[in-house]
Amino acid sequence: MKFCVVGSGIIGLSTASELLAQYPSADVTIVSDKFGEDTTSNGAAGIFRPGGGFSVVGDTTGAIRKTWLKDSWDYYNAVCASSEAPSLHGIKSVSGYMFSSESDLTKNDLLSDVVPTYRSATEDELKICPGDWKYGSYFLTLVVDSQFHLKYLRAKIDGRVKIYQTKLNNFKELGKYDYIFNCTGLGSKWLCADDKVVPIRGQVYKVKAPWIKMFFYSNSDTYIIPGMNTVTLGGTRQFDNYNLQVDPHDSAGIWERATQLLPNLKRSDIVREWVGLRPYRDGGVRSELEIIKDGSKQLKVIHNYGHGGYGVTFAPGSCKYSVKTFTESHRGIWKLWRSKI
Ligand SMILES: Cc1cc2nc3c(=O)[nH]c(=O)nc-3n(C[C@H](O)[C@H](O)[C@H](O)COP(=O)(O)OP(=O)(O)OC[C@H]3O[C@@H](n4cnc5c(N)ncnc54)[C@H](O)[C@@H]3O)c2cc1C
């Protein structure tokens, strides 16, 4: 059986890795126009924190979203507990605070269900950082530094998959594959003519500040998240904005807000600034099998795109679900074939 995974961000690489874990002798090809540092996934801060608005098409009860979150949490923790060094997989435990002066946006029922600690900040804790913080939460979670984790996933599958660098214009170009996994993020806007896919532009600083061990969030999309070697300072959330250039006004705003929250960041060394377009999909992540007719042939495409600002958080769980979609579809076809003989 021949599989093609389109896309090599965290969703594409996690899919290929899960496919090979479930079907070790599978014939897997990855087709992608960008790899590694050129993907959106590579620059993500990588904190394991789902947004309350994250949803999946057809998931009316929220059960799928919950399963993806739990499966992802279990996967990342299992990697952490393995004998492999954190410098390889890029996953580490972090704790920190979320503060707000406007309304209590610091609660997160989805996350508090899976992490070991999630509680309100005490009166004393609300005074840790400068600002008039009225609400706050403290929690323990993980950071999956994508720069490291993408390399880790690549190392797991290299030598076991074929890789082609090319831009796909139509799934019909992939007629020789039995199943296609579409993990193209924002690219699905054009590849699937899906107008519900919209970028949410995010700009960040990556700085050297090894003394920062905790994460901090506050109003106006301000966040400080320590990764393996650098700390990510953010950010922006600009809907339907395609600008991949660093905007000096955004830079000034991010720097001001981050250093107000943690003044000692003024001593940090700036490594780089980065812009990424979060692949948001209005109506939720599209995770389903589509049969595309191509003459007498039928292309089986399993979509998995539109994770917005939470693709690192949900990658392992959503990719496990895609591979399960393949297994169930294939079992159905096999049963049909058996019933005819
Ligand atoms: C500033 C910022 C901070 C973030 N922080 C976090 C965070 O802390 N936690 C979190 O969970 N998430 C975070 N995210 C979100 C996360 O980065 C995304 O949800 C995730 O990267 C989406 O992964 P993906 O594999 O779908 O997309 P991508 O990484 O964009 O990968 C898509 C792949 O498809 C390929 N492709 C697209 N179209 C085609 C085509 N036509 N032909 C061939 N190949 C194609 C691309 O080349 C690429 O390889 C952040 C995002 C940004 C921008």
Brief rundown of the structure:
This protein is α/β, with parallel strands linked by helices.
Textual characterization of the structure:
- The protein is α/β, with parallel strands linked by helices and 341 residues long.
- It has one domain (2-339): 3-Layer(aba) Sandwich (Rossmann fold), CATH 3.40.50.
- Helix content is 29%, strand content 30%.
- Strands 3, 4, 5, 8, 9, 10, 11, 12 and 13 form a 9-stranded mixed beta sheet that branches.
- Bound molecules: flavin-adenine dinucleotide.
- Residues 6-12, 31-34, 39-41, 44-47, 167-168, 183-187, 191, 202, 204, 234-235, 276, 278-279, 305, 307-313 line the site of flavin-adenine dinucleotide.
Features:
341 residues; Rossmann fold; 15 strands; six-stranded mixed beta sheet; globular; nine-stranded mixed beta sheet; 8 helices; binds flavin-adenine dinucleotide
* Spatial shape: globular
Radius of gyration: 21 Å
Which consecutive residue ranges, at least 5 long each, have pLDDT under 50? none
Helix content class: 25-40%
Query: What is the percentage of strand-forming residues?
Result: 25-35%
Helix and strand pattern = EHEHHEHEEHEEHEEEEEHEEEH
Bound molecules: flavin-adenine dinucleotide
Number of domains: 1
Which CATH C-level class is it?
Answer: Alpha Beta
Structure classification = alpha/beta
Could you state the CATH homologous superfamily? NAD(P)-binding Rossmann-like Domain
CATH architecture, by name, is 3-Layer(aba) Sandwich
Q: How many runs of DSSP E, i.e. beta strands?
A: 15
Mean pLDDT reading:
96
CATH topology: Rossmann fold
Spatial separation of the terminal alpha carbons: 21 Å
- Alpha plus pi helix count: 8
Largest sheet: 9 strands, mixed
